[in-house]
Specification:
Elements lengths: L2 E6 L2 E6 L4 E5 L17 H8 L5 E7 L8 E8 L1 H6 L11 H14 L2 E7 L1 H7 L1 H14 L7 E5 L10 E4 L2 H4 L1 H24 L5 H4 L5 H10 L10 H7 L4 H4 L9 E3 L2 E3 L1
Parallel strand pairs: 4-7, 7-8
Antiparallel strand pairs: 1-2, 2-3, 4-5, 5-6, 9-10
Helix pairs in contact: 3-7, 4-5
Length: 266
């Protein structure tokens, strides 16, 4: 039986002439459009740029797991030239506080555009954390001073962006623009929480940034929630209702442990 080959919309079409069956076969990957982990943190952005999709924006948030303080969502867009100048960028949770501040300065000086959205705890209580997170991503992207050709988001897909997008598992560890957004969101939020600490020093917000450390839970039990606490979180609502049970169950790992979005950090 003979075979013929043709092309339709970029697909290879192979037809079995004896039976009239047609099978569409995906074309082989072009090596220039395949991300390689050895290429470093900018590999996805470089592949997208070679495909004509530039600038690329990354979106990430900070404070989702905290029980006090705002949620901060940041979007950062880069051109290939800007990406090539980045040196100190990495997932914000893998950097020390001093290194994050330096990385923040580097990002805002290098990025084509960036924007951070601050969503207060009251809005989180009214609308829900996930709704606020998604809305914050849309708002941060829409507020950029440029129009990205492609968007990389951390963790989960976001509908309604109006731009082609890819959700990436642990995106802040594998894509430079997402890592940059993580740094902007984290540093912005940390600065806010240091200011909150000046208003409510009894909770120690400057140290734990609103995460549920044992020290924070002891302060919450002793003083009750302040206006910055998220009443929709069970550990806050239980204290507001006079139930001290959940706080009593916390094991204290020591005062040198600080909780971040990823968990405990020395």
């Amino acid at each position: 039986m003979g075979q013929g080959a043709g092309a339709a919309g970029g697909w290879a079409v192979i037809q079995d002439a004896g039976r009239g069956d047609v099978m569409a076969v995906l074309p082989a990957r072009h090596p220039g459009y395949t991300p390689r982990s050895a290429a470093g943190l900018t590999c996805y952005e470089r592949v997208l740029a070679r495909a004509g999709l530039s600038p690329v924006a990354g979106i990430d948030e900070a404070g989702r797991g905290a029980c006090a303080g705002p949620l901060v969502v940041a979007a950062v867009a880069f051109e290939p030239r800007g990406l090539s100048r980045l040196r100190g960028i990495a997932d914000s949770k893998a950097l020390t506080a001093k290194a994050r501040e330096s990385a923040y300065d580097e990002v805002v000086a290098t990025a084509l555009a960036w924007h951070a959205v601050v969503i207060p705890s009251t809005e989180i209580d009214q609308l829900g954390l996930h709704v606020c997170n998604i809305a914050g991503m849309r708002r941060a992207l829409a507020a950029l001073a440029c129009q990205p050709a492609y968007v990389l988001t951390d963790g989960f897909a976001v509908r309604g962006l109006g731009i082609p997008a890819l959700a990436m598992w642990k995106g802040d560890e594998v894509a430079a623009c997402v890592a940059a957004a993580s740094v902007v969101a984290k540093v912005t939020r940390d600065r806010i929480m240091r200011d909150v600490h000046l208003r409510y020093p009894e909770y120690g917000f400057a140290r734990h940034k609103g995460y549920s450390t044992p020290a924070h839970m002891r302060a919450l039990s002793a003083h009750g929630p302040c206006p910055e606490h998220r009443r929709s979180f069970v550990n806050v609502s239980s204290v507001a209702c006079g139930d001290q049970g959940p706080q009593g169950a916390c094991d204290d790992p020591g005062e040198e442990v600080v909780w971040t979005d990823a968990g405990p950090e020395n």
